[in-house]
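Hi F.,

I've been meaning to write this up properly since the lab meeting, where we talked about keeping a consistent format for the predictions we share between groups. The idea is simple: the sequence comes first, exactly as it goes in, then the structure tokens exactly as they come out, then a line or two of notes. No screenshots and no reformatting. I'm using this chain as the first example so we have something concrete to point to.
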Amino acid sequence: MRVHMEEKPHKCGLCDQSFFTRSHLNRHQRTHTGVKPYRCEICNKRFSERGNVVVHVRTHTGEKHFTCEFCMKQFSNSSDLKKHIRTHTGEKPYNCELCSQAFSNRSHLARHRRTHTGEKPFECEYCKKSFAMKACLVMHLRCHTGEPPEKCYRCDFCDKVFVYPSHVTAHLRTHTGEKPFSCHICGQAFSNSSQVTAHVRTHTGEKPYECEVCQRAFSRRGSLSKHRRTHTGEKPHVCVFCGKAFSQSWGLTVHLRTHPGSVM
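Output, unedited:
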């Protein structure tokens, strides 16, 4: 009866949210108190919810219950599978409210927002310099330590180093020639899903990305983003060693070669 009447008698005294049941209230209150009553028996890491322990334990056991219907790759939890499926479908459900750019991952949207706000939440413990991206901080730390990042992913073919495992996976395809994504119109194969999406527009002639300043249209979102900088003067590509900024990524790539020891 309570559900139908939308009565929520259990109120949080810290933020005024209300809940149908006391157990839901108790779970919510942990977001305020930081209490983590559930513990992994293997590594003793603690969690605020029992379900999170179940998912975490799979990182020890290697158990993977969730399988991608497109490529049969397996995952230990449903949220990772959902994110992966978007690499096949091209779905980008997270939109920037400032420029309408879309992303497949919520964390990618959060990172992108910083290009508008100027927020730099990652601070160097040695010199207090701040960065918008964690990867930039990790690279910067080498200026102080002289060592590569503690946790890095190295290409087995060319020894190029990456901060994230997904980046080295995509990079490896430049060596192996693997092209798991195909155009449904002509069958041409590509190494990543975004290339397929852009390629299909060469068949359809679609140019969905229009500049709001001069109305020029583009088939790729990235092309529009680059074009916008001719109007705004924005320089989002910043050197982690000296702070010099560039409007295009290739400008930063060329500049990095002036810093000995930079990983390219």
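Notes:
Residues 135 and 163 are 6 Å apart (CA to CA).
The two ends are 63 Å apart (CA to CA).

If this format works for you, I'll send the rest the same way.

G.
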